[in-house]
Amino acid sequence: MSINLSNSQVNIRDSRLGSITSYHGDAQTLIDQSKDRALHFRNRSYSQCSDCSQGCAETLVYHIRGAAVVTHAPIGCNAGVSGQNYTARAVSVARGQEIHNVHMISTNIQEKDTVYGGLEKLRETIQEAYDRFSPSAIFVTSSCASGIVGDDIESVTCEMENELGIPVIPVFCEGFKSRVWTTGFDAAYHSILRKLVKPPQKKQKDLVNIFNFQGGDTFSSLLKKMNLRSNYLVPLATVEQLAEMSEAAVSVHMCETLGTYISAALEEQYGVPEVKAPAPFGVEWTDKWIRAIAKETGREKLAEKVIAQEHERIAPQLQEIREKLKGKKVYVFAGDSFAHSLANLAIDVGLELVGITTLHHDQKVDNTNSEELITLDNLIKSRGNITEFSVCNKQPYEVIKILKRLRPDVMIVRHQGLTVLSAKLGIPAINEGDANASVGYDGVIKFGNRVYDALRTIKFEKNIAAHVKFPYSKWWLEEEPDPFYFEKEEEK
Ligand code: SF4
């Protein structure tokens, strides 16, 4: 990858990584075709719901301690802010840290602003954010409306930066710009790299950058055994922490989809190596992850000692869990790489994987120096081909037909709204809302116990299913056999 920080806008995933949001077939064919970037975008003629790059960008920048966010958008774009604030507060408590509240103001673009432009309003709102929150940096996120009007956000942020004497950082994350909403993560990282990250003053040889969401502190105890310190980025980190990420010994992430851009950029720009291993979900992948960190930080002997001790420590509980879950069928529904990691973990605790749906698929990763970062390839190498594999950008009408046919005993989902779909079908589900919850050796045990607890709620789900009426026609639910009926031809 070659990152261009002189360009204010990130190169979107659609073109950079050949990302797609539709596929059905088997996993091996998907990975084989991805190697040549042979898959083309396939739209849907009907979409039930979606997400947006702006929301993904704000999932990161809302939670930077000491920063404020100005959203140059109609107020509706920020419908999710109270949920974000709730999460930030809950995770602050879980990590034993000071409560973090989101400091955000919307410019509330109105119809007349889309005719005459909204730059004066933007200037006033940045000033208001400065006066109200005394931030050490202000992020300005764009939206479809400001993008279509063509408001020159870059020049206003430059002017206000000079006036206020703090970084005022534009994040170009208009929802319409990319058909893959995770581009919003990259847009936020791109702006942080352009305007906040400083060249290293010194190297912190025991510091590990962990690119994650607002999750619990589950990495530190494992890294501590390796005499390493965790640097959780970006949510709940301070502006100063972000500036120093170039000083870390290595970068890791809880999901390649989330961390692919920034980790590769840090390696390219500042020589901070991205750890070349799958994320630590499942015993074998955690072993690989520890060994890869050890290789970069000169701790190979210690790594072997830690791995042996951890295996011995969890062995009795793991065996018990595997016996309890043996033969139970599982379906995984989550974002791209995270779904692969959860599938690996599910098999590790004894479940039989009957299928996966990922919300999109990147045909390549940003860091091309290692095949170990291609998580689907890792999954196939570890567990064999997955015959029921689909890519679907969160369309419940599609997934319901897959689930009705495969009838798993339990579902693992990343987004909580989709656990409801599972319950309505009488299938217990667990929600990986805290994406850090299942990492490492302790994570395997915790995950197995959560699945077991979920399976025991089956009567409750069956009761719900008995009283549910879906909003789909009889034709769709009973007569049309193809869940992918609304997918269009590939765009060449
Ligand atoms: S930025 Fe665009 S896609 Fe995103 S919420 Fe606003 S209008 Fe919708």
UniProtKB/TrEMBL annotation:
InterPro entries: Nase/OxRdtase_comp1 (IPR000510), NifE-like (IPR049939). SUPFAM superfamilies: Helical backbone' metal receptor. PANTHER family: NITROGENASE IRON-MOLYBDENUM COFACTOR BIOSYNTHESIS PROTEIN NIFE (PTHR42956:SF1). It comes from the Bacteria. It comes from Kineothrix alysoides. Pfam families: Oxidored_nitro. Gene3D superfamilies: Nitrogenase MoFe cofactor biosynthesis protein NifE, C-terminal (3.40.50.12380), Nitrogenase molybdenum iron protein domain (3.40.50.1980). Residues 52-455 form the Nitrogenase/oxidoreductase component domain. GO terms for molecular function: oxidoreductase activity. This is Nitrogenase molybdenum-iron protein alpha chain.
